[in-house]
């Protein structure tokens, strides 16, 4: 059974940083692309970043490009999202997800999701 | 504002069928057969219900089906059950960004 467990969220001041983590189990981690999707309070879903299984390519939404950095440690089955220069509009639940396809410069199909970690940006 | 347009809410009685629409453009829904649907119960994580317009992941009930016509994709739930009450989001591959874009979500109420 695929399991994804996020951690690292919290309350941070505008301009601050956090490092989100996602521990994975139940599948061969290095074989799959992984992604981060966020959901602002009472709002819809936004896919913000993805990384291929070999970490040879990363993808970002325009809204976070230059401020967020996705990475992974395949030896520890762990996905990361470094979030810097945080703004109030980054307040959201951040979900880690296993990606079904990432190739040719695009990613699609979020097959399995974690329960999320809350990030709140406020002074 | 979401790239894909969904109705804010739909409702139906147990046993009935409902359809949720997802309208995009010729650069996303209309151009590619890469539409997915996700179910999210209150306080829970999203769950993939349909991918590539019509395909169901293993374990998803065959009461859920997807289709597409032109720039509009649809999710149909037949034999509505109380447990189907949730938010539903569509998503699509688009030529303008590397990551799938989502609709604004539709709240399904089972009367």
Structural write-up:
The complex is a heterodimer of chains A (123) and B (111). With 123 residues, chain A is mostly beta strands. Helices cover 0% and strands 56% of the residues of chain A. In chain A, the strands form two sheets. In chain A, strands 2, 4, 5, 6, 9, 10 and 11 form a seven-stranded mixed sheet that branches. A four-stranded antiparallel sheet of chain A has the order 1-3-8-7, with no helix packed on it. Chain A is globular. In chain A, 39% of the residues are buried. Chain B is mainly beta. Chain B is 0% helix and 41% strand. In chain B, strands 1, 3, 4, 7, 8 and 9 form a six-stranded mixed sheet that branches. In chain B, strands 2-6-5 form a three-stranded antiparallel sheet, with no helix packed on it. In chain B, β5 (64-69) and β6 (72-77) form a beta hairpin. Chain A binds chain B through residues 35, 37, 44-50, 59-62, 95, 100, 105-116, and chain B through 2, 34, 36, 38, 44-48, 51-52, 57, 89, 91, 93, 97-105.
Write the layout of secondary structure elements.
The complex is a heterodimer of chains A (123) and B (111).
Chain A: E1 3-7, E2 10-12, E3 18-25, E4 34-39, E5 45-51, E6 58-60, E7 68-73, E8 78-83, E9 92-103, E10 106-113, E11 117-121
Parallel strand pairs in A: 2-11
Antiparallel strand pairs in A: 1-3, 3-8, 4-5, 4-9, 5-6, 7-8, 9-10, 9-11
Chain B: E1 9-12, E2 18-23, E3 35-40, E4 47-50, E5 64-69, E6 72-77, E7 86-92, E8 101-102, E9 106-110
Parallel strand pairs in B: 1-9
Antiparallel strand pairs in B: 2-6, 3-4, 3-7, 5-6, 7-8, 7-9
The largest chain-to-chain contact, stated as pair and per-chain residue counts, equals: A-B, 27 and 24 residues
Tell me the distance between the termini of chain A. Answer: 40 Å
How many individual helices of chain B?
A: 0
Mean pLDDT of chain B: 96
Instruction: Give unreliable regions of chain A as ranges.
Output: none
Q: Helix tally of chain A?
A: 0
What would you call the shape of chain A?
Answer: globular
Mean pLDDT score of chain A, rounded? 96
Q: What is the terminal-to-terminal distance of chain B? A: 29 Å
Query: What is the beta-strand fraction of chain A?
Result: over 45%
Q: Using DSSP, what is the number of strands of chain B? A: 9
DSSP strand count of chain A: 11
Helices and strands of chain B: which structural class? mainly beta
> Percent helix among the residues of chain B?
under 10%
Instruction: Tell me the major beta sheet of chain B.
Output: 6 strands, mixed
- What is the chain-wise order of helices and strands of chain A? EEEEEEEEEEE
Largest sheet of chain A: 7 strands, mixed
């Amino acid at each position: 059974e695929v399991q994804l467990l996020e951690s690292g969220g919290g309350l941070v001041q505008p301009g601050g940083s956090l490092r989100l983590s996602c521990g994975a189990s139940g599948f061969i981690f290095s074989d799959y692309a992984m992604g981060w999707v966020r959901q602002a309070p009472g709002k819809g879903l936004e896919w913000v970043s993805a990384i291929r299984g070999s970490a040879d390519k990363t993808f970002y939404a325009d809204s976070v490009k230059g401020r967020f950095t996705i990475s992974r440690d395949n030896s520890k089955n762990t996905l990361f999202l470094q979030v810097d220069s945080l703004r109030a509009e980054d307040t959201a639940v951040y979900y880690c997800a296993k990606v079904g396809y990432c190739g040719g410069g695009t990613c699609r199909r979020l097959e399995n999701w974690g329960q999320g970690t809350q990030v709140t940006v406020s002074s | 504002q979401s790239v894909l347009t969904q109705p804010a809410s739909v409702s139906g009685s147990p046993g009935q069928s409902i359809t949720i629409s997802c309208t995009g453009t010729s650069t996303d829904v209309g151009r590619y057969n890469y539409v997915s649907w996700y179910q999210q119960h209150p306080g829970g994580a999203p769950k993939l219900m349909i991918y590539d317009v019509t395909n169901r992941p293993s374990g998803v009930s065959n009461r859920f089906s997807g289709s597409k016509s032109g720039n509009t994709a649809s999710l149909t739930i037949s034999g509505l059950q109380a447990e189907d009450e949730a938010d539903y989001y569509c998503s699509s591959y688009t030529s303008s960004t590397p990551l799938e874009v989502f609709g604004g979500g539709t709240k399904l109420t089972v009367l």
